[in-house]
Every structure is written in structure tokens, then in C-alpha cells.
Amino acid sequence: MSDLVTITIDGVEVNVPKGTLVVDAAKRIGNDIPVFCYHPKMTPVGMCRMCLVEIGLPVRDRATGELLRNPDGTPQINFGRNLQTACTVQVSPGMVVRTNTPFVREGREAIIEFILSSHPLDCPICDKGGECPLQNLTMAHGKGDTRMEFTDKMKLAKHVPLGELIYLDRERCIQCGRCVRFQDEVVDDPVLQFHNRGRSLEIVTMSDPGFDSYWSGNTTDICPVGALTTADFRFGARPWELTPVATLSPHGPAGSNMTFSTRIEAAAGGRTVIKRIMPRQHELVNEIWISDRDRFVHHFADAPERLTQPLLRKNGSLIPVSWDEALEFVAQKLKGFDGTAVAGLSGDRMSNEDFFLFQKLIRQGLKSNHIDLANGRLAGGDVVAQVGVVNDTTYDLPQRLGVGDAVLVVACDLHEEEPVWWLRARQAAKRGATLVTLNARPTRLDREAAFAIHYAPGTAVETIRRLLNAAKVEVEQSDDPIVAAAQALVKANNLTIFYGAEGITYEESDAIARLLGNLLLVKNGGSGHVGRVNNGLIPVWPHNNTQGAWDMGIHPAFEPGYKPVKTPGRNATAVYAGVANGEIRALYLMGADPVGDGLMDGRGQLKLLVVQELFLTQTAALADVVLPAQSWAEREGTFTSGERRVQRYYPAITPVGECRPDWQILAQMGERLGLGKAPFAASLVFRDLAKVVKPYKGMDYRSLAQVAKQWPDVGGEDLYYGGTAYENRSGLGQQWPITPPKEPFAVPDVEVPVPQGLTLMRIAALYTPGTLNRHTKLLAARLAQPTLLLHPQDAYALALQDGEPVTVAVNSGNVQATLRISEDAPVGLALIRAIPYQPGTAVAHITRVAEFASS
Amino acid sequence: MIGPLLKGMYTTLKYALKPPVTIQYPEVKRPVRYRFKGRHELKRYDNGLEKCIGCSLCAAACPADAIFVEAAENTDEERYSPGERYAKTYEINMLRCIFCGFCEDACPTQAIVLEHNYELSFYDRASAIYTKDMLIVDVPINGRPTPQKVEPGSFDRAIPVMEDPK
């Protein structure tokens, strides 16, 4: 290839793409040039001067442009008089780099000496000690003594909270600016800044609340010293005492790869506990970043409220019993019901193994087709199976969306729902991709969008249909943003579409998925956007394994692997109706709380209610039997991300009480209902399901655990290069292949009642108070409070003031919220955040709290 | 024949009049050498603050994995040691310990010292684990027990102030 450049580093030739920086080129051949301020995911600034090397260029004759040669035929190289920063110099043909000459070593020693001139050297108590780039580089390149006076060291504040999550130690900061640049350049939350100059330079946060970013934890990973540390891990343990265990995010549909750092603790009575969560590199999923929700929300696994024993209702109250008694009771009771009167509803946080055995228990054990997700918000799993996105298969510099490509984001606020995908969409736009957002209201991604289209509430399907129709015809130029956007999308080399369920109903989302599938199929002179790398549909599922639930047939109309069911069963809504009118007599719930979510009105006419849960939820409190399940941290399993990537997670902590993994409970229940011997390991369940679920064919726990070389290198000895994110040694997972459709999808007609007058729409908030978030005390102050956003015009019409408490009718109940007057809300659309899920849009009933109380 | 007998009796008589070389342990104890490495003690500063800052370097240095430390954060309201960090849990398993003194070498504040107590025998394994209460020395006469309530900002350095290199 012509765009490769050959340079020589310490006598070793290396071929790298044009534009590569010298420091990266050296890294490619294992030559570690020390850096502090440079980070491979950010633009170089050359602030710390640690990467000084000798760089020589071939000399050319000024008149002829010919290379001048030494008598022996080798090109003459001019090294210049000074050292240069390897992080800011791009490679050029014939370049010669020397990284280990006395001149370079002298330079490095001087820089280390200078940086340490005001560093406190309190490594023994520093949380970074043991995985600290400054420590490592001082050991490797430092002189061992100093000419500076210790008495001249700066004495600064050592405990500056930048918000509740991150602490700053001003003494330790070496002012490399990685955190400032990360916040500004990578995640677009420029809440950190340098303040003052020279010796007085310090990092400050200007936001309220402090360090207001969903990504703040990542700055502690890339901080090359212990200046930024998380409050969660503060003095928790020393890094070398921790055992890394690979895991996945239990929150978002992106399937972020993470690592638990675990340790046995006396404070926990000798149990193994999670001390912290760090990102694990997966260049196709989360690169080396995780959001603060992924990083800090894990305390629910260790919460004292966790169920520890099976509970059985005796004389009206739930009594702890043995597993055998509980399982036997449920099995005997279930045998007494006819298949049409039994239903199984599941949450969407479980593993694939759990889902597979759950549907097996309901379908084969109980002969019922009434199986669904308890709280299905987004449809289209079957569409995704045909037009889902295809990932690159290289992990070392994978193909990413950029110039000439397009990203369409429909009906979701990625920043609040799955920050990892928000980052991906934003970075694609920054690299030059055309970003189109389609929503009823402005979202954060609109800042980067080429076309930000806001439709009226209730017209989502209609708008996307218009978009699709506009894409089918060739138009040169148009003033209509929908037509222009459609042309940009269809003409893009690669097209990735995210779609969510903000302000739309389940039925609408089904139609939208199909329409978007058809949009991907539109050829219009090109080759269509299905089945190629970086093309396809990504559903922004509400939870981490909704995709797996669809794949495993937690659906009234689909068996595992999207095989249609002959006689579809009841969906969740019909099950709840059946519970109320007595047609459903027994209900088996796994990881779902329909009573607490306001979907089911108490026990109705149920004869038997079995709940498999982590906590005694409102539904569990009404149950006949409560079976305690293990959280994801205690067991192994697989999750499937919204990009259909099946990934493994591993057991990290000592199981709580007598809890058993969900799959085991279901298998043991199945054994009692004649489904054969219970498998004794999750890997065996997976092996079974891979035989049945067609797309998963050929996968097993071993193939899911395969790894590949990724770029940039992280997690090695050279912590200074990529930060303290962990290297992926436990599996990159596998993406299951789509089967492209032969013809466009038939789109059902959806009746959408368009609300008249002021409309209410629920919007997502990352820290919505819920079962999981609530247990992280650190986040308590950041948990989103119910807030109603109103446009100034609407607020004026209703004569409401900013900050006023109001009551809003939601889901046939009332929610108290604080009113915020904001132009983020379009005219005529009231937005409410941090409340339980509410599908679609509704007419807004807003009352003043005082009025409500008096009436 | 009588000669050797007398010689033997003479030896007996000679030693009978000398002071004995054996000592009556445990009533009497032989003083140990100054550098003897016996049971560890966790030292305090003169004001009563603990020298240990909970850095776990002793545990890292320990070749027998005998030491277990859990740290926590000091406040000026409840101060155990100078600086930000102190040892909330400090345990040494005396059955594992090989009395090599690496912990003493590793300690940045000279908090852990192998002292002269060698009487380490136990009825069961659990009692071989010495906790922080058992290891820490008594509060000096002029000191105060920990936790102390102190003037804010008066003990903000975990490690004694460094001197200029000589």
C-alpha cells in the first residue's frame, strides 16, 4: 500500500500508516517511549515532554531534491540539535528515531526530576500506588536523586472533592491535562479546566454539581498519577491485592466489558467482595471507557436487603424454608394447572441460560405459550435478526464510521439510555459521519447532528414513513430536512441506525423497526445497507439482555431463534388482564416486579404466584413462593448486547446466603416437572441452547472466551500508555450472524392516538432511582429526581413557576415532580424524567400541588 | 580406681558451688539481643497517634502472606494516624510469620517493629491471628488514645516530612 511509511526506530524498521505518530509507531514494535500527557485516544499536545527522543530526517539536495548519501551509500540523516516530542511528530519516509541514547536518557531524567520537584511521593497511601505511571516511569527512567530542595515542595490540598465521585489531590497532579482533554474532546462535558498558571496551576470543576459528567470515572483511569481517584475505592485496597474478574455491564444494552477487582475482606466477614469496577478493553464495544453507572452501580449485589433463603407463604406470611421444600411445593402446585391458565413473565436482566431454561420450563414443562417480557418496551428483535448491525472482525484498528458514513438515531436519548453508544455516535459525527437525529424533542446528540428532526408527538411512524419514501427516490436538493436527511442516509457508504422507544408505544416501535429495516434495504443506486460492516440496526433496549430474551424466545410468538410459534400465547398485557379476570391462575415471574412497576394490580385472582428475585419487591411480597436468585456478580453466564454480541461474564464474589443462579433454580424445577436431569453448569446449559437457537450455533463458552490483539495496548506494564483499563483476557464474545430478508418488511398499520393539547412524554435519565441504582450510596445525591420540563410558553399558559412542585398524572397514578421551565421542551410537549416507565405519550394533566391537596 | 572417682566428684563439687547456667523459664527469662526479631508491635508517636498508615506495604513484602490490612480514612474528628489513611484492620497470623523482618523494612513510617516477645504458642489456629488491638503498643504517658479529635490541618502528612538528601 502506498500510504504506508517506513521509519527506523533504534535500528528496527517499521511500516505504519501515514499520519501515525512516532510514539505509536514505536509502540507497534514494542518500543515503549514513556509518556504522561499523550493518550492514544486523544489528540497529542506535547505538554509533559516525557516522550523526548532524537528524530532524524534524511537530507536532500536543495537543488535536485535527491537524497544525499554517505560514502557507504546509506542516506545522510540530520538529527538536529534538540530532542523532539515523539507524541507530536508524525512519521515521514526515511525518518530515523533514536530512543535510547545518552542524550535521550538525560532528557528523560531531567523531566522526571522536574515533575517530581513538587510531587508529594506519598505513594504508600496513594490509591494509584502500584499501578501508577509516574511510579513506573520514575523507576525506569528516573535518576534516583534530585537537585531540588524538598523544603521547596508545594504544600497543597490533598482532598479536594470534585463532586461526590471523584477526589482531586492537588499535590499529586502533574498537570498533564489528560482529564481536561478527555472531558472536553472525548465526552464533550468540558466541566474540568485548568485554573491559574505556572506553579499555581490547578484542576478545577466549574459545574454544579461538581464534575457533572456521566464519564467522570474514566479520568481516574487515564490520570497518570494518583491525582484523581474515585470515592468508591478510596483506600479500599492496594491494586496488587486485587483479583481481576471479567464481567459485563448489568445495565445497558451495549454490553460494556468491565473488570471487577475483588478481594477477601474482614469487614465483610471473610467474603470476597467487589472493591471497584474498571473498564475492560473491547474496541468494538466500549473501547476503554465505561460510564459512571457501569462503574459505580454494583452495590446492589452486596446489599443487606438481598433475599438469602427461599420463602414460602404459610398462614399468610412468608416463612424461610429449605430449597427442596420450596421447589417441591412449586412443582406440585404447577402440575395442578392447565397450560392455558399458567403464564411466565420475565425481566430482561437475566442471562441467556436463564431465559432459555425459563421458556423451556413454561413451554415444555407447563405446556403454556403465555410467555413474555414483563415490561416489554421496545419491539423489533425479529427485525434485528435480519437487518442488525454487523461488526468488524478486526480488533486492531477496526473500521469505524467516519467521512461518507451516516448514523441515524431514532426516538431515543442515547446519552441517558446507553452512554457508550452516545459516545460512539458522537465520535462518528466528529470524524465526519452525517448524524441524523429523529425525536419528538431535542436531545444532546442534536449538537453534533447534521439534521435534527423533531416530529410532533404521536407522529413518529408517519415521520419515518416519510423518511423512507423520500429515500426511495432520487432528489438533487431539497429544503425539506426529512428529504435531505433521507438522501444523505441512503447515499452514505455505511449506515448505522439506533432506535429506541422514547415517547412511542410498543406497537409503534414494532412498526418503526420494520420501517427502518426497509430503509436499510433501500438500494437507490447503492448496494443497500444490510450485511456489511458498520451497517444495520441497533435497538436501544431498555436493559442489558433484552436482546438475549428475544433470542431465547421470551416472546409469545417466537420460540428460541425466532422460530414462529404455531399458536401464539398471551403477551404481557393480556397476561395481566388474565390475572385480573381469573383466566390466568398461576404466574411464574423471574426478575420482574409488575406490581411495583404499576403494570399489575395486586395478585388479582391468582391461585399461585412464584417470584424469582434478588430483593423482596412489591410483587415478591405478594407471592406464595419467593426463590432467591444470585446476582450477576456471583455466577457466570452470557449476555447478548444490542449488537447481537454474545459475551461471557464470570463469578466474582461469594454467593449471598443460599441464593442459587436463576438457571439452576429453573433446571431443578424442570427436573421435578419431568424435563430431565438438571445440568450442573451454566456452560452445559449454553451448550444445549446453542444446539437449539440457530444463530448461536457453533458458540460455546470456549469460543466466547477467545481474545485478539487490540489497539491501543492497555493493561500491560506500560500503564502510562493507555491508562489502567484492563486488557481483555477473558473473551471478546461473538456476534451472531444476521439472515438478510429476501423482501422488504411488511409494516403493520398502527393506530396512534395523537393527544390533543399539552402532551406528556417520559424521557430517560441515566440515574433513575430504581432497584439497582438505589443501593449505591455515592450516587444518592445524583439520582435523578422526578422533574417536569415545560417550555416557557406552556408554563406561562398554565401560570406555573420554575421550581414549583406539581402533580402529574402518570400511568393512572399521580407523580409529584419539580417543574423546570426549559427550552429543551418543545412547545406543547411536557417532558417528565426519573419516573417509572410510561409508554407513548398522553395528554398532560398537570396540577399545582397546593390545588391538588385542596381538591 | 579411687582416683577417677574423686576426680568426678571434684568436678561435681566445683560446679555445685558456681552459679547455675540454666535459668528457670518461665519464672525467669533470659534477656534477648537488641536485634532479636520476636513478635511484632505497632508503634505510636509520642502524642498517641498510630504510626501505621494502613498502606499494606508490609503485607506486600511479607513472603509468608501472614499480614492482612484494611485501610480507612482519617478525619480530624476521628484521627488514628497522621495523614489521610489508617489501618482499620491489621492482622498478623503468627503461625505463618517467619520473623524475617521484611515488614519492618517495607514500612515507610517505622510503625511495625519486631520486638522481643517470643512467647507465641496457641491452643487453636484462630488465636494465632493477632489483631490490631493485640499488636498496638500502649498509649505513651503524654499521649492521648486514638481516635483523637484534633485541630484541622495539623496532621496532614502521612509520612514524616522528608529531609533533603545528604
Describe this structure in words.
Chain A has 855 residues and is an alpha/beta fold. Chain A has 5 domains: 4-100, Ubiquitin-like (UB roll) (Roll), CATH 3.10.20.740; 115-230, Alpha-Beta Plaits, CATH 3.30.70; 315-380 and 545-693, Rossmann fold (3-Layer(aba) Sandwich), CATH 3.40.50; 403-530, Dimethylsulfoxide Reductase, domain 2; 759-854, Barwin-like endoglucanases. Chain A contains 23 helices and 38 strands. In chain A, a hairpin with an 8-residue loop joins strand 12 (243-248) and strand 13 (257-265). The longest helix of chain A has 16 residues, at 506-521. The termini of chain A are far apart. Chain B has helices at 2-17, 57-61, 102-106, 132-135; strands at residues 40-42, 67-73, 85-93, 112-114, 129-130. Chain B is an alpha+beta fold. In chain B, the strands form 2 sheets. A 3-stranded antiparallel sheet of chain B has the order 2-3-5. In chain B, strands 1-4 form a two-stranded antiparallel sheet. Chain B has a domain at 30-135: Alpha-Beta Plaits. Chain A binds chain B through residues 121-122, 124-125, 129, 145-146, 149-151, 158-159, 234-238, 240-241, 265-267, and chain B through 53-57, 59-60, 68, 70-73, 83-85, 88-89, 91, 108-109, 156-159, 162-165.
